Amino acid sequence: MAKLAPTQIDQLQNIGAYLAQVRQDQGLSIEMLANQIFIRPALLRALESGSDGELPEPVFIQGFIRRYAEALGLDGQAIAQEFKVIPVAVLPTAESLAQADTNGVVEPETRHSIKVLQQESPKRAWLSLPLLLSLGGLLLVLGLGIWGWLGRSREPSQTDSNSSVAETVPDDSNAPSDAPSDAPETALDPLEETGDLATEAVLEAPVVVSASLSDRAWLSVVADGENVYEGVAESGFEETWTAQTSLEFTTGNAGGVELSVNGDRAVTVGDNGDVRTLTFTPDSDVESIQSP
What we know:
Layout (H helix, E strand, L loop, with lengths): L5 H20 L4 H8 L3 H9 L8 H14 L4 H5 L13 H5 L10 E3 L2 E3 L12 H25 L36 H14 L3 E7 L3 E7 L2 E8 L4 E6 L3 E5 L5 E5 L5 E2 L7 E5 L5 H5 L2
Antiparallel strand pairs: 1-2, 3-6, 3-8, 4-5, 4-7, 7-10, 8-9
Helix pairs in contact: 1-3, 4-8
């Protein structure tokens, strides 16, 4: 079950309604699309209706949106990005405030006929100019102090009068200044970057299997005929594997292993001490794990 923030639920409902309208306009059935993109019809219906309680984690939802949109001939990557894996604060911009009605209600912008929730522009949230200049001056003074201290630390130590080796002091006249630049640098959000990488792993393969261990267990994973993992994993171990056609998963302690297949809910593989071997394909779901 997905645990979505209110902004994510709003995004999901708007995107789902848009995709449903495009699908109906093209005269396609949910069952036809499900067979084409290897996503169960129940999950596609939940996606269209915005029923987050029936959907998996946000990273899988974003992957479903992309594959669904691409099957309809749309720009799947752009539409999938409208659903944020990591929720962000929604702040009104100056332009949107200018469009507010007499009751102060701000109309959201639209893209692909989908409501888009935006963060306030970083430029408008930046520090005021006087404070920025003050901080820049302070950093400059600190930088010069550090530079001077480093210069003194590089001075040659005194040697014996009998020493024939003369030490030279390096010329720092051309060395780059350690003083920080006043110009702010824009850094990428590491959480968003991580979310994108995880999404790509979901999108690239029809078979996705995620394991989570609550107890020590021996594991073996063979993806498309290639052994990709074998060994003893400890409690707390988490990993996701992908395959194009089939993935074979074997464990020596089924009671300590939970699996999620193709975005379906995670379930325990079996009882403590049981040895189980499971084979998953693009059509597999939670029933593939629960079946003896």
